[in-house]
Amino acid sequence: MKILALDATSGACSVALYSNGQTTERFVQAERDHTQRLLPMVDEVLAEAQLGLSDLDAFAVSRGPGSFTGLRIAISCVQGLAFSADKPVVPVSSLAALALGARRAHPQWGGSPIVAMLDARMQQVYWGIYGIEMPNGSLISEAVQNPEQVLLSLSETKLTSTYFGAGPGWHYEALGKARAAELDLNALIHARDIAELAVPLYRAGEMVSAEALEPVYLRNEVTWQKRQKIRS
Hints:
Layout: E1 2-10, E2 12-19, E3 22-28, H1 34-49, E4 58-64, H2 68-85, E5 89-93, H3 94-105, E6 114-121, E7 124-130, E8 143-145, H4 147-157, E9 164-166, E10 183-184, H5 191-203, H6 220-231
Parallel strand pairs: 1-4, 4-5, 6-9, 9-10
Antiparallel strand pairs: 1-2, 2-3, 6-7, 7-8
Helix pairs in contact: 1-2, 3-5
């Protein structure tokens, strides 16, 4: 199985190739120029593996939530590639990929739940809780909330085991009241984790056509406001 994954959800962009159990990646931490960086990175990864687009089984991309602009860049890029190659796309949760990357970076966290958070601006965060047995699915519905609402939601989930926190969304002072055992505020989303999460989804048939691929924003009013600005 060969899956090419792309991400530009946060302050980084990356491309990864999963090929028969092995994953290679190009990763650049950059707030801008994602549009100019992604396609050359795709070319590099494929050239290194001596593969063409036609050799792939599918593409994978972070479906969100995350930066509106970053999501649109990565999704548009994948749509173009998948359409030209006539291949399906596997949408993967950005938060699930963030959690998997943090688990990979911190093996000492073991199988404990990871609360992944991205800064949604406007004093809110995107967040979810991810266990080791079902890394693609949050233990609660992925949400956009302010820190106080997050604390209330965490108390209502009644997590009985130690949990860890990952992602820049944890920077809000109010979240210091949470009882996370350890935090990694520098955790970022990697395409390699999107690729690895895409493998079981592909096997389960959870893929879409390039035309049907849609981002998940969680905060619909942001989309509406941006569209209104564009129209005006």
